[in-house]
Amino acid sequence: MTSTTGTAQLDTAELEQRVKLMYEEVAREPERDFHFETGRPLAERLGYPPAQLDRIPAAAIDSFAGVGHFLDPAAIAPGETVLDLGSGSGTDSFLAALATGTAIEAAGLTIETWRENPEYGFVSERADNATTKYGVTSVSLLARPR
């Protein structure tokens, strides 16, 4: 699909591909410099409490590229089920799981399609590895197929 604005044209399919590629690069190489902030320093600047960040896998925070901290206004209560749309690195999904309690699941859904996972279809490799490495069983991080 192409949108026209005056004399300029925007190829929305190309834009979508470029955005996906950029977030994949952040996930695969979080230590790299990008034209936007990433990682724990960004999360803390946006208002994420350091004590809460200390409780989730560092691998999820390393590739964090969020735009705001919205968990406080969400007022997640124990026992609730949470769907984190645009979960990216999984930072908010992990924090939501902590807020709901260990027996309840928080699911993150993202546009990334980096690796096929037989159980979930496609999942962000970095986020999936973080859930496995840290033994987190209350978070499912899903992505849509290509």
What features would you describe in this structure?
It is a single chain. The chain is of the alpha/beta class and 146 residues long. The chain has one domain. The protein has seven helices and seven strands, in the order ββαααααβαβββαβ. Strands 3-4-7 form a three-stranded parallel beta sheet. The two termini are 17 Å apart. About 8% of the residues have low confidence.
Q: Structural class per helix/strand content?
A: alpha/beta
How far from one another are the termini? 17 Å
Overall pLDDT metric: 75
- In spatial order, strands of the major sheet run 3-4-7
What is the count of distinct domains? 1
Please give the radius of gyration in angstroms: 16 Å
Tell me roughly what share of residues is in helical segments.
Answer: 25-40%
How many DSSP H or I helices? 7
How large is the share of residues in beta strands?
15-25%
Shape, per Cα inertia axes: globular
Provide the low-confidence segments as ranges.
113-123
Reading the helices and strands in chain order gives EEHHHHHEHEEEHE
According to DSSP, the number of beta strands is: 7
Largest sheet: 3 strands, parallel
